[in-house]
Design a protein that fits this description.
single chain; about 70 residues; mainly beta; Thrombin, subunit H; three-stranded antiparallel β-sheet; 7 strands; globular
């Protein structure tokens, strides 16, 4: 499942991996990749008020503050 924001595609794979792709000319570029949790995930990541919420099928939820991440470029 994925969402697109500010020229980036945020993908949450079925295996709980979060991948951020930069969209632009040509092929998408992997900007970040991390394993958020184990278990299957079929939920779409949700962006709200600068926070990214991801959930797996077991109900585990991860909240990432994207505003803080932008300051570390």
């Amino acid at each position: 499942m994925f969402t697109v924001v500010d020229g980036k595609m945020i993908v949450l794979t079925r295996k709980g991996e979060l991948v951020v792709l930069g969209l632009g000319e040509g092929e998408p570029k992997v900007l970040a990749r991390t394993q958020l949790f184990g278990g299957k995930s079929y939920a779409e990541p949700v962006l709200a008020a600068g926070h990214l919420y991801c959930r797996n099928n077991e109900g585990t939820t991860v909240c990432l503050d994207l505003r803080a991440a932008q300051a570390v470029q």
